[in-house]
Amino acid sequence: HAARLTGFETTIFAERSKLAVATGSVNLGQGFPDEDGPSDVIERAAQAMHEGRNQYAPGRGTPELVAAVRAHQRAHYGIDLAPEQVVATTGATEAVAAAILGLVEPGDEVLTLEPYYDSYAAMVAMAGGVRRGVPLRGPSYRPDPAELAAAITPRTRLLLLNSPHNPTGTVLTRTELEQIAALALEHDLTVVTDEVYEHLTFTGAEHVPISTLPGMAERTLTISSIGKSFSLTGWKVGWATGPAALVAAVESAKNWLTYTSGAPLQPAAAYALDERVAWTGTLAAELEAKRDLLVGGLRSLGLDANDPQGTYFVMSDVADLGWPDAVAFADALVERAGVVVIPCPVFYGEEHRAGEGRHKVRWAFCKRRPVLEEALERLAGTD
Ligand code: PMP
Ligand code: GLN
User: Which of 12, 30, 93, 312 has most ligand 1 atoms within 8 Å of its beta carbon, as the pocket-test mutant?
Assistant: First the structure.
């Protein structure tokens, strides 16, 4: 393979899900729910196929999806978007890829929070950019504005944010976002923010899109998708919104990645956003109860667990358990307990992988209760 893919040959999610199947383990690794989203939304997709919505959609997205994304942003966040400020993508993954390919010159620096969702690092590398990380340090996993400021250089082009944050479950507060926004304004940075867990926040946490802060709408590209909000992770219907020039850059890159995205799924995604957003509130409440089950269970077994305020995930620091690193711990867990987790060193860059990232693992609680209970029972029966 080309040198740009060195270190990115596979993904930890594919590797660990394969291991779960091969060993019959309970899979608390890859973040996907084991129950589907609303059946009427699924029915709407089937109907769109039968109605003949099976040929190429417009590159920007079908009119109803563009309208639904605009209406959603207005209803939830008071954001007014013109049609040219929305582009549909093949999941948030393609939006991230197209944003990086569309905005980053070779040698440009991209700042990410660390740990980061793995596709960010791969895409920065494929674009010839340089990724620089600002650690969210356990046990609280909050950003330190001084560290963020210190990581900015004259080559910094993008600030790539993610809140609610995978894998830590951190939901950035308004104050934290204001501190980040002040730096973006001071250094004239473009912000790309991945908000795929926007609806999956728990009691006490509120999702604030950074684009709603003063001066930020003009410099922020916001990314989301249907996958997490509606438990339809395989659909890969996403979108990017923001200033027309940033959206145009995403669309230009997207033209050559996929050209257009799955036509019949777009009217169904529009239907979900228009008619079924209340469902996501129920989902968030269910996830919160599952978080409590898993976090409480891990702690009662003497394992570390952080306090995620959103997402599907909880982090453990396993440094005290005697394993050389998180990979050794995760491998032992498969062997001894039949439970798969994600070792997190791959979510850290060189600089922090052997330090802050070395002993972190991620557990997914977006699974049915009996599955979480089975995992905890297996752990309890293990030394
Ligand atoms: N960003 C983050 C932070 C994620 O956790 C995920 C889910 N895998 C994605 C992007 C990808 O979203 P999609 O499935 O819509 O491509
Ligand atoms: N976002 C999910 C996770 O973080 C799935 C990722 C994937 O399979 N690429 O686990």
Answer: 93
CA–centroid distance, 100 to ligand 2, in Å, is 19
d(CA 198, CA 273): 13
138/155 Cα distance (integer angstroms): 28
- The verdict on 111 and 44 lying in the same domain is yes
Domain end among 258, 276, 294: 276
Sign of torsion over alpha carbons 74, 77, 83, 89: negative
> Is residue 383 scored above 90 in pLDDT?
no
Mean pLDDT taken over the chain: 97
Ligand nearest to the CA of 225: 1
pLDDT in tens, 176-230: 999 999 999 999 999 999 999 999 999 999 999 999 999 999 999 999 999 999 9
46 lies in the same domain as 30: no
Which ligand 1 atom sits nearest the alpha carbon of residue 31? 8
Residue 127 in tokens: 């674009």
% of the chain at pLDDT higher than 90: 99
Q: Please check whether residues 263 and 350 belong to one and the same domain.
A: no
Is the whole-model pTM more than 0.90? Answer: yes
Q: Both ends of the chain: CA-CA distance in Å?
A: 42
pLDDT in tens, 10-23: 999 999 999 999 99
4-10's contacts with Cβ under 8 Å and 24+ in sequence apart are: 4/125, 4/126, 4/128, 5/122, 5/125, 5/126, 7/125, 8/121, 8/122, 8/125, 8/126
Please report the ipTM that was assigned to this predicted complex: 0.97
Please tell me the distance from the alpha carbon of residue 104 to that of residue 51, in angstroms, as a whole number. 40
Read off the pLDDT of residues 136-163 as tens digits, 9 standing for 90 and up. 999 999 999 999 999 999 999 999 999 9
Question: The CATH number of the domain where 110 resides is what?
Answer: 3.40.640.10
77 pocket-lining for ligand 2 (C-beta < 6 Å): no
- Token pair recorded at residue 104: 């980053």
C-beta 356 within 6 A of ligand 1: no
* Last residue of one domain, picked from the residues 221, 252, 276: 276
Measured from the Cα of 93, ligand 1's closest atom is 16
